Amino acid sequence: MHVPDGFFNAAVSVSAAAVAAAGVAVCLRGARRELDDRTAPMAGLVAAFVFAVQMLNFPVAAGTSGHLLGGALAAILVGPYTAVLCMAVVLLVQGFFFADGGLTALGVNITLMGLVTVLAGWGVFRLITRSLRGRTAITAASFAAALVSVPASALAFALLFWIGGTAPVEIGTVAAAMGGVHVLIGIGEGLITAVTVGTVLATRPDLVYGARGLAAPLVLRGPGGESTVAPQAPAPAAAPRPALPFLLAGAGVTLLLAGGVSHLASGDPDGLERVAEDEGFLGQATDHALGSWALADYGEVGGVPLWVVGPVGVGITLLVAGAVAYAARRRKDGTPGGTREAAEAAKTGGSAEAAEAGKVGGAAKVGGTGGTTA
Fold first, then answer.
1. Where along the chain is composition biased (Low complexity) (predicted)?
2. Contact present, 60 and 273 (Cβ < 8 Å)
3. Sign of CA dihedral 301, 257, 141, 248
4. Which of 84, 131, 177, 214 sits CB 3.0–4.6 Å from 275 for a disulfide?
């Protein structure tokens, strides 16, 4: 559901860009509570995976296809704040490298496919998992969260189009058409999300952000049939398992999807394009500013094969999202940025330079006490 240039007037485009920028800024700060040295690479992998799976359009109705949006999936795997950052990176890479989604509509796309899908999906997921625990419940909640997030984004598009769309179409007409087709797309999104989350839960549950603290309670049954919930003793501290093997395997699967399976994607227009054509506002779309370069439309413009375009997009997304996550992560000393000296200086009200100077001065004193005078 990538919105092209020309669907919205300047006021809505600028306002949506401001909302998107503010949302990303908030999430940069919030992601510090979700990311550390060990989980930051997972964010890069999740963004790359979303990019790859978005290339796999699947049929949902006669002449209509859909693809993963990915906001709910990313929120469950790496946390809601980090998920918005992942989605923003995916949309930036798609817009600037592959001419997928308008540049003037970038704020709209980040708002709809990043903020709305993450908020709706994470909200549904948390609502369900507050009362249900265990792997099956988490997988089911993932399906429901993804299912709801897609029509939520579609209805948000209808609202924005009513406010500042460039074609005189009734909001009820657009909302009904967008909501209907995107419920079907949401079912596909739910299945993809549930399978992905379930697979990661089965192999590395410690890397699923949404599964933290959601282990199913141990129920004890007495001789008379009565059941009691056993108190959970604190788990002994254990060294974290290395994530590198899982990350390498995930990167391999992602490359396979983008460079190989993408050849099987449906060529039918997606839900937004189909609705725009049926309701008569597809002609409002304008040419993309970067639509003539070789990688535009995922290589179709320049004749670049998908087995090249897919891995290139995955690599760019992985590097950019990984760098953003690494910069936003919480350091080992518990601080969100700077060095350990800066953290120590912040506690004492000084600067990093002062802290370093104090260390040097202390060393000089030690050296001085051990010397002799002339």
1. 345-358
2. no
3. negative
4. 177
- What are the domain boundaries of the chain? 10-218+243-337, 341-374
Burial of 46 (0-12, 13-18, 19+ CB in 10 A): buried
> Taking 90 as the threshold, does the pLDDT of residue 112 lie above it?
yes
Residue 213's pLDDT is 78
For the chain, what percentages of helix, strand and coil (3-state, to nearest 5) are there?
65, 5, 30
What fold does the segment set 10-218+243-337 form as a domain?
A: Arp2/3 complex 21 kDa subunit ARPC3 (1.10.1760)
DSSP state of 270: B
84, pLDDT greater than 80: yes
Instruction: With CA atoms as reference, report the closest residue to 137 among 49, 208, 39.
Output: 208
Closest among 71, 84, 69 to 24, alpha carbons compared? 84
Q: What is the pTM of this model?
A: 0.85
Provide the CA 127 distance to its chain's centre, in angstroms. 20
